[in-house]
Amino acid sequence: MRTDKCIPDIASALREAGANGLLMAEPAAGLLSPALIAEFSTPYVRKVIRAIENESFAVIYHNCGNNTIQLIDSILETGAGAFHFGNAIDLAEMLKLVPPEYTVMGNVDPAGAFCHGTPESIRAATLGLLEKCAGHKNFVISSGCDIPPGAPVANVDAFFNAVKEFY
Predict the structure, then answer these.
(1) Alpha helices for the chain (secondary structure H)
(2) Which residues are CB-contacts of 92 (< 8 A; sequence separation ≥ 6)?
(3) Domains parsed from the chain with CATH numbers
(4) In what side-by-side order are the strands of the sheet with 21-25?
(5) CA-to-CA distance for 94 and 96, rounded, in angstroms?
(6) How far is CA 47 from CA 40, 50, 58, 75, in A?
(7) What angle is formed at CA 149 by the lines to CA 148 and CA 154, rounded to 5 degrees?
């Protein structure tokens, strides 16, 4: 199976099913050097995004590596209109590097806060991140990656309640 054909086919099926976009996870790229991401990730991600993104179907690029701040130039070259970053980085620092026309999402710790935290600790983490980043109009708060299945619902509720409280 050729992936250069398969991914656009999957995106077309998602569009036909009513989806408005997809999240493309590229977490291993966050472990690469700037030269290696430029060679082994960015051109291929850009090719996929160009094949599937349009005015009615968005691609959100996800990278949760701890090296993403140093890789931001290559990440921006992917052509995605929105970027989702994991909790391994300081999102306030990343927001300084991303032009305001791009949406930046993240990055409350999914394991430490959502899964192993308490409603009080996730409230504090959420409010703390909002205080640091909400001044950027292109910021959207979210978890830094997938929330583990064992995360207490009370912690997820505390996250949303903290967002409502802040705004």
Answers:
(1) 3-16, 34-40, 42-52, 72-76, 91-97, 119-133, 153-166
(2) 132, 133
(3) 3-166 (3.20.20.210)
(4) 21-25, 58-63, 82-85, 103-108, 139-143
(5) 5
(6) 12, 5, 14, 13
(7) 90
Q: Which two tokens stand for residue 6?
A: 């398969």
- pTM of this structure: 0.91
pLDDT, one tens digit per residue, over 29-44 is 888 899 999 999 999 9
Residue type for position 156: V
d(CA 98, CA 117): 30
- pLDDT digits over 110-161, tens only? 999 999 999 999 999 999 999 999 999 999 999 999 999 999 999 999 999 9
